[in-house]
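Bug #77: duplicate submission created two jobs. Keeping one. Sequence:
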Amino acid sequence: MAARVFLLSVLFTVGLSTFRSSEGLEVGLGFASEPNDAVVSRNRPLLLNCEPSHSTNNTTVHWTFNNDLVIPDTRRTILNNGSLYIKKVLYKKATQGVSDIGVYRCLIRNSYGTLLSRPAHVRLASIGHEFAESPANISVQIGEAARLQCHIESTPLPLITWERNSHPLPQNNRYITLNSGILIIRSVDSSDEGEYRCIGTNEILNKVRRHSAVGQLTVRPRSPITADVEFISPVQPASVKRVMEGSTATLDCVVSGRTTDVTWTYKLPNQTTDFVSEMKRSVNVLTLHNVTQAHEGAYTCTAIPQDMNTAVDDEMADEPPPFTRVVTLEVLSPPLLVKKPKSQVYPTAKTVRIECEAKGNPLPEIVWLKNGQTLRINGRVSARNQSLVISNSVSDDTGIYQCVLNNSVGGAWAAARVFVNVSGDQPMAPTRLHCSAASATQVTVTWHQPPPPPPTNRQVQAYTVHYVPTDGGEEMRTVSLNRSFTVSNLLPFTNYTFYIRAYDTKSASDQSLPVTCLTGEEVPVGAPEVNVVSENPTSLSVSWTPLSSKVARGRVSEYKIQWRRNDHHSTNNVDTVKEHVTHYLITGLQPDTKYEVRVLAATEQGWPSLPEEALPWSLVQTLPVEPDAPLLPMPALQLVVLNATTILVKWSLEPVQQKVDGFHFSYRKQNGELLGPELIEAGKTEHVLADLEPQMWYEVVMSGISSGVEGESAVRSIQTWASLADEASLLPLPAPTHLLAEPISPSAINLTWQAPPHHNISHYTLSYHVVQTALPLHNSSIYFLNRYMLYICRYNYIYNNNIYITICTAIKMHDNDRHSEYSQKLECRTLEDLPGAVYDVQWKLLNTTSVRISWKEPVKVNGVIANYTLAYSPNPNQPLTEWTKTIVPATKLSANLTTLKNNRYTLKIWASSGAGPGPPSPSLEITIPSKLPNGRSKHPPKPDHSTVPKPDPKPDQILGIVIGCVIGASCIIMCTILLVYRHKCTKPGPVCRTGQAAANGSTGGFYLPPSTAFDEMHEMECFTGHLDTKGGFPQDQVNGLKLTLLTNGRIPNGHATRERDHGVRITENPQFNSPIGNLSPGSCDGVSGGGGGGGDCRRVASDEGDSLLSGHQEGDGEEEGDCASLNDTQLTTLDCCQTKAEQAAAMIASAGAADDDDGFHENETHRTHHHLILLGPNG
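Kept job's structure:
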């Protein structure tokens, strides 16, 4: 509490010394004219206007083109008034040369900051070579309406005229032309027949004319058969038309068929009646000039045939006409500023809020600029509900801020100037900031603190370390007493940006230059998304999507592909590939068989350590073999190394009945991506692989093709030579194949394999390791086997005595001088074993018929726990099979036994897995009393509902009740009188929401919550509780907080010392002015008048409820010209003598107590101790 009060005094002093009125503060920079959009033709001059306002002094003007600074030259010149003149506009495609077509902005700058003008889009005048839409061939009857339409792309919009039979249209009111390229002909007659086409021109490119294709209008005689009503326009029953605000909107409704009257209906906003247009024959064109938001809505075109029977029944008279079309008119409007930002002055460590509200259709997006540059919204800078909020303001926040609003229609902007007033003697900002990752979740930050500037020579007492995810997130902070700090609880493999602020006994420094650090790696927390496709009956194509950085939590170093038959869950086939590979081909599978496939990713820290259910498998079935097209057998594949970079591939295929169309050939480098397949002609039996890497293993896959179906695949591996000098060395042996594993016990698996024929094998090397240890294969355990062994790998009581484990195995073979590559790896899980005994079994009495039993999981699970069995019996000598049993799911470690009728039971618990039930726990005796401690019996009697008169209370009980009521009423009356009396002497304080800080004894340490629950920067809104007339507080409360101020000679921040008057001194506030006279503390007597302190103090303006509260003023606090409401507050200071460590602790607690304010300031004092401010009821 003392630290918080000390912080208030510091902030008040800084507020008085740095506050400046916002009244009269202007942006100090503006435009007299801004550039506008322009359409120009090639090789013509262009002038873009830009002129600073006349009230702006010492202003420099610059231009940007597509966000790059324009450097004036002989072709582009910035005029004296700031405008940009381009002598000759150039246009070439971006990849072919210089182009002046793009976005221009004018940038003006002075000592206050920088302003950026609205964007001026310069476009090249153009018109399409052909019409995108030409008139269609139509046929109409005499007297009906015709509608023709055409469209051509043009910048600016084209001027469309119409021709009939290559001549301009005659002047006739039956011809209606619309600006959108539409021609409507009313009451067509035979003279209207002919060829119609459009002529498109561009107002800038005057010499360019485009002609559309010809559309034939055929006029037929009127048929005696009445045709149905048909809408030519609009065609759809409901459509949307979008127009610009202020433009002219044209809605045309054209109907053919029976003689029909057409009208438009629109419901006016806030009106009970509808707008109905004039009724016209077959064609009705509604034109709306100067469209506004009031014109938005649904317009209904209604067609009423004249021959419709008007003699309808009364109940049908209100039915809507049967022929309607609805057009919804949407009015698009550019952004319009509703509330412009205001220029303001702020002290340091304040929350800056800049509001910018706008409307428009579509709703505009807001981009914030500071001094002409896009502001990064991150950490302490946030955008909320069309407002910009900057917490913990520093001097670097001073500048001109713009809110730029844009939508598809247009744009707007507004600006405000922010000035952050700082103390002239604040400490220097820390320098030489350095960070390094200590682990996946920790970063160590170190820095240097420059010496304090003279003449203050105040030493830095504490630092705040600020950090935020670089890619965006909430800014966090912590406090350090040293110039080194380790930040914990960070996200793995995430960039964080750090900066430091220093604090002395009076104020806070600006923030240091930021530094960015990447945390360490961790194992992934998920698996890639997998797509599996069966391309032929014996193979599966597997592809996957790389993990996101959030899931990978590091750089992926390799992928593991696992596959198994759906009915063989104990054994997985495994292969690994490098991090850049995202595709794998699984070969050698059985046709028409279900397989499960999974891909896992690993970082340098290992594979995911997740339960099996969190890493799902993908189920897929291989294609069946068609009866009339059997699969080709596996080719006999042979690999020969020719030199260090070349392999000769030979193959042969046993005679088959079906025709061989060719071969698919693929290969890959060890752990690399499969390259191919390459189609090889059927007659070939050799292929050369060249340009390979020396001393590298390569895998070759070969399969035959018949009738478009791929046969069984042959897979072989071989290693190239190390160099040309090794060409005479012996060829390596091929790897063993058909490695199979079968679990035979909880601690053993049976391995079998096949060796290639015609090789004199001397022995085998078996390598294995436990899966999920992240050990590479060469770190595995190795055994040497003779060539006759059918090897059984017994794996018991190894790796922390785990029985139910997964083993990854691989094998290679040797002769006297050579060895092969390891075979394909195989993962096999041993069988489950019986679980161990549960332990720590306890019971708790719930009532006379129920108990709660709890236990802990066995130390040795040896598999997967399926359930727990609770067996209990009143007779322990009874056979266990006859005991009462309750089955509990494996997810629970407690259960209730109810409806117990006996007083004594014996209980045993055991766990069960797939291998069976484990051993039972030791017997537990349960004793149930007949009566509970509260006196209730085991079998409570039934309630007696008979009416029995209750005895009267004893006389001494009535007397006690009366005395208690009298005493209570007397206390209430006395408290009420006292509260009323005290209310006359004080003013009510604000309603407070406060946090708490706990002292830590003599060490001065404080618990700092991660974030105090204050809204933005309202931590100083109110801190006061009720003061009595002597400046005291209620028991155990300080400023409304229930914290003990003095306990056993201690103060919250440390020990009270015997120095300086041997204790604590209470000082009256010399600035206190009583509202009813010049009173001394503790009395309510006197006449009205000035207080002892006079009226010389500072008034601190309040923004958003924030108040800077002051304490005892010395020195510059007595300046003239300002006034504070503090004169209405009886203020006392508690002079506590503290050590430097205790002062630092107080500052740390203060820094952590405020939500968005870490400024730390204190009144200038000539004492070796500091003041703790106790606030009166007025704050």
